[in-house]
Amino acid sequence: MPALVFWIDVDNTLLNNDHVKAELESELRAVLGAALAERFWSLYEAVRHERGVVDIPQALARLRAQTPRQELPEATFQHACALFEQYPFATALYPEARETLEHLSRLGLTVIVSDGDHLFQAEKIVNSHLAEAVGGRVLIYDHKERHLEETMERYPGEHYVAIDDRLDLLAACKSQLGERLTTVFVHQGRHAEEGLQRPGHYQADRSVEAIGELRCYEAADFLRAGPNH
Question: Which residues form the signal peptide (predicted)?
């Protein structure tokens, strides 16, 4: 059993998802036009609100179901779908993301634990070569904080480290596992900034400004008591 098991998030932790979304918004507007692109993102937000996670395939399915073919020809719709399926996700990795995974793999077992729909999120993780970087150890849940026991059963360890850009998620994990878990907050992306703006926000055990900073950490840095902000 490894002494350390790292649970590593993807969006805005290893991969600049804010940048990806901005590029997709621009490309989708070019393909669909402003009105249909706006309709898609409205459906995207509706699905996210209903499910609590992003579900691109469901948003696209609703766009198809709710839009007549005279307004949205099938060829145009398939072109829009291809924008998501063929996006070069490897180009959106944060600097030193792959090198950080390699470093952490020398300290313990690295596992990608991500939220999102199982199709699009899996494509993103595979196409960015992140799955390869962690030896195929990838778990995708609708709400990963609800599956901690399952995650630990799948990849047991003596101590766990959760690395994420979302303070609320880190807090939820810490409340369940206590001292068995070290939380690492990565200050990247809009969710990280929003979390810091909330009064009385959770203080993670460790905080870094960029994922690449973890290359300077050794195993003991994740195990010793006390915060490192």
Answer: none
Asked if the model's pLDDT at residue 192 lies above 80, the reply is yes
- Beta-bridged to residue 181, according to DSSP, are 160
Three-state secondary structure of the chain: CCCEEEEECCECCCECHHHHHHHHHHHHHHHHCHHHHHHHHHHHHHHHHHHCCCCHHHHHHHHHHHCCCCCCCHHHHHHHHHHHHCCCHHHHECCCHHHHHHHHHHHCEEEEEEECCHHHHHHHHHHCCHHHHCCCCEEEECCHHHCHHHHHHHCCCCEEEEEECCHHHHHHHHHHHHHHEEEEEECCHHHHHHHHHCCCCCCCCEEECCHHHHHHCCHHHHHCCCCEC
Give the pLDDT confidence of 109-160 residue by residue, as tens digits: 999 999 988 888 999 999 999 999 999 999 999 899 999 999 999 999 999 9
The answer to pTM > 0.85 is yes
Q: Are 142 and 115 in contact (CB under 8 A)?
A: yes
CB 63 within 8 A of CB 84: no
Contact 32, 60 (CB under 8 A): no
- φ, ψ of residue 188 to 5 degrees: the values are -135, 135
Q: What is the pLDDT of residues 10-33, one digit of tens each?
A: 999 999 999 999 999 999 999 999
